[in-house]
Inverse folding.
């Protein structure tokens, strides 16, 4: 590097340091360069700016890259399978779109079907990447089958091989894969009308089911299995079976994959922070290995199309080998190099906040620095502090301290609440307070006449009509 470049780089670093000192970022003061912050419960964008379509997905680590795969569906009445997309990242935050690894045109059997919960493992003996998934015909969930596809490269176009019930016998819906330390691989899926959870050993090429090795918790109706192994313990995380709606995640453990499983223990909140798990990825770094719970906030739970689903990621806390917990954090910071997952828990600003105290601890209306991702923060940062600018004694604008931009909604576009440059100062950025009793107020948007609404766990920030008189539209502006 020549001297001019070097001094430019120094100036850039000083600028970044100053920016951080001034509270320009919501990461607490200890943030490091390699640390990346994720705003939970949003549909993140890839590095090209497109919404990530990797729902009900899985992750695979190879070389320095994490590969994230997941499903995108068609906008037809049955929400049929369109494709499985693959993204890759070194830091678990910045995702490059890599390839569409399987599409509805990859096989005639995929033309009109549902594919859910794809997962990949690598077979060292055959040098093949093996993709397993849940398979149904287009309009219902009656087939209850598993399907398999292969590729000789991680990001290749996968060849669809077959779909059937395991051992041509067992119903099979929500599913996952697990590869053990000795290379033995397992397919785990909800069986018997989702009442039971079956663990099957795969054949040595991973292309077929070899044997049923365990049936767990018969009659318990568990879905969304995700398995890891840590300290010689296998852990299986599952959800309840309530369609697209949320329910209580539970975990169990055993030192033998085929027997001795514990009973189910609850983890997270009763709604699992409005999410359903899809995978647990170990983040193996220089300092530690963390375990990241990856989950979907299904759009179907809000009556929206599948492709608008959001992502919820949390660290699993191992309090002991037999006790695992998980907490809600609106933002988490992941350091893929060190393996540390750092929760953003420290207030870094003071000022006017737009607060909710229903349902959980105090949370504060926040919008990520780029205006993209609304969230309800549990800390007060420059993303959640606002300056009230009076317009006419009744209406006012809310200027975010972090960006200097206004809280905004364009009713002609969609009901997404975001930020806009302060040159926009008309009715789309104007709000008034409507008394809601008990010290609470509604925030009424001038151009639409609608009220601001949010739910506790993350996003869901939108405008709703004034028939929505519940707590979700009540705020404390203080
Ligand atoms: C819950 C399952 O976990 C999802 O994968 C999906 O199959 C939905 N049910 C469909 O209602």
């Amino acid at each position: 590097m020549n001297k001019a470049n070097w001094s430019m780089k120094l100036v850039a670093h000083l600028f970044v340091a100053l920016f951080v000192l001034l509270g320009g970022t919501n990461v607490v003061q200890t943030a490091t360069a390699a640390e990346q912050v994720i705003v939970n419960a949003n549909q993140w964008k890839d590095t090209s700016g497109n919404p990530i379509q990797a729902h009900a997905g899985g992750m695979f680590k190879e070389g320095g890259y994490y590969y994230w795969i997941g499903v995108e569906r068609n906008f037809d009445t049955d929400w049929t399978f369109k494709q499985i997309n693959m993204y890759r990242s070194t830091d678990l935050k910045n995702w490059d779109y890599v390839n569409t690894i399987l599409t509805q045109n990859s096989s005639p059997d995929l033309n009109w079907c549902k594919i859910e919960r794809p997962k990949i493992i690598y077979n060292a003996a055959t040098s093949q990447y093996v993709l397993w998934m849940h398979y149904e015909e287009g309009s219902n969930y009656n087939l209850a089958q598993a399907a398999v596809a292969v590729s000789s490269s991680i990001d290749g176009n996968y060849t669809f091989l077959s779909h059937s019930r395991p051992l041509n016998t067992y119903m099979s819906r929500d599913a996952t894969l697990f590869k053990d330390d000795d290379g033995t691989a397992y397919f785990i899926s909800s069986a018997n009308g989702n009442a039971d959870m079956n663990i099957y050993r795969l054949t040595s090429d991973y292309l077929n089911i070899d044997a049923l090795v365990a049936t767990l918790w018969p009659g318990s109706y568990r879905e969304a299995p995700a398995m890891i192994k840590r300290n010689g313990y296998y852990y299986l995380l599952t959800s309840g079976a309530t369609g697209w709606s949320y329910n209580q995640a539970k975990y169990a453990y055993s030192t033998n994959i085929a027997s001795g499983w514990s009973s189910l223990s609850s983890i997270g909140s009763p709604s699992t922070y409005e999410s359903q798990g899809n995978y647990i990825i170990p983040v193996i770094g220089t300092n530690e290995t963390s375990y990241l719970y990856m989950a979907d906030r299904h759009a179907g739970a809000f009556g929206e199309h599948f492709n608008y689903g959001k992502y919820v990621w949390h660290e699993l806390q191992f309090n002991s080998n037999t006790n695992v917990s998980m907490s809600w954090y609106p933002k988490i910071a992941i350091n893929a190099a060190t393996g540390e997952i750092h929760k953003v828990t420290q207030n870094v600003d003071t000022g006017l906040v737009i607060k909710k105290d229903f349902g959980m601890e105090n949370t504060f209306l926040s919008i990520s620095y780029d205006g993209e991702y609304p969230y309800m923060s549990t800390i007060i940062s420059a993303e959640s502090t606002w300056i009230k600018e009076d317009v006419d004694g009744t209406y006012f604008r809310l200027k975010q301290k972090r960006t200097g931009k206004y809280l905004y909604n364009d009713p002609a576009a969609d009901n997404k609440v975001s930020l806009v440059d302060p040159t926009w100062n008309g009715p789309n950025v104007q709000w008034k307070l409507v008394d809601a009793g008990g010290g609470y107020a509604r925030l009424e948007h001038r151009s639409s006449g609608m009220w601001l609404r949010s739910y506790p766990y993350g996003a869901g920030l939108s405008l709703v009509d004034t028939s929505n008189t519940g707590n979700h539209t009540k705020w404390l502006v203080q």
Notes: The chain is about 5% helix and 45% strand. Helices lie at 3-21. Residues 56, 116-117, 174, 223-224, 243-244, 276 surround DGJ (CB under 6 Å). The radius of gyration is 24 Å.
